[in-house]
Amino acid sequence: EGACIVHDLFGTEVVERIKEGYCDAFLTAHFEVPGEMFSLAMEAKRRGMGVVGSTKNILDFITERVKEALHRNVDDHLQFVLGTESGMVTSIVAAVRKLLASQKSSANINVEIVFPVSSDSVSRTESLPSSNGLSAGDLTSLSVVPGVAAGEGCSLHGGCASCPYMK
User: What residue spans define the domains of the chain?
Assistant: First the structure.
């Protein structure tokens, strides 16, 4: 038996932040997310703005919304709140990039993937943020790093199946 520390941290605080800051976004949730996030995504699903399901269901939902936007051929900004493990971000980004690269339309379609986490799952570094902003390639100057302080737990290199807390 195991317990998922990430799912414990993916609760009320995160749901409140999503309600306040991402009320117009598409919501996705894996079957295993805590009740609050599950309920929020089910509500979005009833409005046609979300999906609750497996990682494949989530990926299919996102790619279908991108295809629909490309077909409309109108400038658009699609925002998806990802309620599942961080390891899924890579496959989503790869699929979305492939779709956008193959577009034949002249529309400017932007896709934003939001991975909300509890403030308890963020570790601060000793450096202060630069007032000049952060370039996409310069991650070393981040003053807030997602993840646990001791370097164990979730990473982009594995998901729940490789989590030491699930063993």
Answer: 5-119
Separation of alpha carbons 53 and 42, rounded Å: 10
Cα–Cα distance, 24 to 22 (Å, whole number) = 5
Q: Supply the DSSP symbol for 105.
A: S
What pLDDT digit, counting tens, does each position of 39-90 carry?
A: 999 999 999 999 999 999 999 999 999 999 999 999 999 999 998 877 788 8
- Give the whole-number percent of the chain exceeding pLDDT 70: 63
Query: Could you please report the per-residue DSSP string of 60-75?
Result: HHHHHHHHHHHHHTS-
Instruction: Compute how many other C-beta atoms are within 10 angstroms of the C-beta atom of residue 40.
Output: 23
**26, containing H or E segment:** strand 26-30
Q: Are 124 and 92 in contact, with CB atoms under 8 Å apart?
A: no
H helices present in 5-112, as ranges: 5-9, 12-21, 35-46, 55-72, 89-101
